[in-house]
Amino acid sequence: MDYGLKSRIASILKPNNGRGVMLAVDHGYFLGPTEKLEVPKRTISPIVRYCDSLMVTRGVVRSSVDPNFPVPIVLRVSGGASIIGEDLSNEEITTSIKDAIRINATAVTMSIFVGAKYEHKSLVGLGHLVNEAEEYGLPVLAVTAVGKELAKRDARYLSLSCRIAAEFGAHMVKTYYCDDFQKVVNSCPVPIIVAGGPKLPERDALALTYNSIKAGAAGVDMGRNIWQSQHPVAMIRAVRAIVHSNYNLDQAYKLFQQLAKGQPIPQNRGNFNPNQNQNRPQQNRPNPQGNRQNQNRNQQRRPQQNRPNNQNRPNQKPGQPNQSKPNQKPNQGKPQNQNRPQNKPQQKPNQTKPAQQTKPAQQPKPAQQPKPAQQPKPAQQPKPAAQPATPAPAAPKPQ
Ligand code: R5P
C-alpha cells in the first residue's frame, strides 16, 4: 500500500490500536437541517476536539469547520436524493476528487445501496471512486446505507453489503451494528466502523459502541447519538473512552453521567482527547497494552499499526484549549512524540493520582531529545474473540 494511503488511514484509525472515533455530521446532505444540526458550526465546535476524524460534506467543512484547527476530514462525495424524494438510493458522486484534495480531505466517502433500486449505480460508482481516489492516495470509506429500510439491518444483509464494499476496493466500511455482528466483521476483510443510527438513550448508545468494539469493529462513526444528546461533550468522551481506553459499559456510562453533571471525573489517560486532531490538545495516549486484547482482527489487517504515532503531527499552536497548561502531566507540553514508542507499560488499574488543579503553575519543560524510534512489531497472531479489558478508570486528570 502506498505511503499516502497508509498514512491517511493511520490518521483515522490510530496506529497504536487500529481504532478511531469518527464524528458524523454529514446528515444535511439528504436530511437538511435535522434536529440539533440546524447550525452546523454550533453543533461541531464543542465536540470536534474529541474525535479522530470528521465525516462531513464540502459545504459544511467550508462554512463550519475551522481550518486553523484541522481535523482529518472524511469527505462525503455522494448525494443526489433527499428524504422527501422518490428513492434515497438514487445517489451518485457529486464532489470531485480535485475538490477533495483542495479541501485537504483525508478520505472520501460515499453510500452504497445493496439490494435497492439503484444498487447498480451506487456499486459502479464505488468502483469508480476507488479507481480515482487511489490515484491520489486517498482512502475510500464505503457506507452501507439502508435508506428508510432500517429493518434491513441484520447480519445477513450487512455481511453482504460490507463484503461487496470491500470487494470493490473500499479501504474501510461503515455499517450498522446488529445481532451476530461478529459475523459481519469476520467476513469483511477491511476495518469496519459502526454508525450510531437514530437517537437512543445514552446508555443504549454506549452499549452499541461497546458491543461493536467487542465484536471487532475498528471504531464508530457516530452522529445523532452524540450531538442529539443533551450532553454531547459528555457523550463523545464516553464513546471515546470505550473505543480508545477499553472502558466497559458501566464505566463509560458512569463517566457520561459524571461529565454531564459537571462532576470531577477520574482521570483516564486514554479518555482525554487521545490522538487529538493533529494540533489539538496534547494527547494522553490510550494504553496499547490494554487495547491489544481486542484488536486481533485489526492487527491482522494493518500490520503497521504498532509504529510510532504522530509522525506528521504538527506542533500545537498556542491558545488552544488545554495546551501548555501549567498543570500538565509530564508528557504534556513536550514537543510532539514523533519517535516515541507506542508500547508504554500498562497503566495500573485504579491508579488514582491526585487531581492536579491545585498545583502551582509550572513552566513548560525544555524540549527533550526524541527517543530512538522503535522497530515496528510484527503483526500479532489472531487471538480468540476479544473482550475489551475493563480497567478501572485510572488516575484523575484535570478536565
Ligand atoms: C448517513 O447516511 C450518514 O452518513 C451518517 O453519517 C451516518 O448515518 C452516521 O450517523 P448516525 O450515527 O447519526 O447514524
In short:
By secondary structure, the chain is an alpha/beta fold.
What are its keywords?
single chain; 399 residues; alpha/beta; TIM Barrel; eight-stranded parallel β-barrel; two-stranded antiparallel sheet; 31% helix; globular; disordered C terminus
Spell the H/E element sequence: HEHHEHEEEHEHEHEHEHEHHHHH
- Main sheet, how many strands, which sense, barrel? 8 strands, parallel, barrel
Highest-level CATH class of one domain? Alpha Beta
Estimate what percentage of residues fall within beta strands. Answer: 5-15%
User: What is the arithmetic mean of pLDDT?
Assistant: 76
Q: Overview of this structure, please?
A:
Strands 1-2-3-6-7-8-9-10 form an eight-stranded parallel β-barrel, surrounded by seven helices. It has a two-stranded antiparallel sheet with strand order 4-5. Helix 9 runs antiparallel to helix 12 and helix 11 (232-245) packs antiparallel against helix 12. The protein has 399 residues and is of the alpha/beta class. Mean pLDDT is 76; it is low at 269-399. The protein contains 14 helices and ten strands. It has a domain at 3-231: Aldolase class I (TIM Barrel, Alpha-Beta Barrel), CATH 3.20.20. Ribose-5-phosphate binds at residues 24, 26-27, 55, 111, 143, 145, 195-197, 221-225. The site of ribose-5-phosphate has 15 residues, from strand 10 and helix 10.
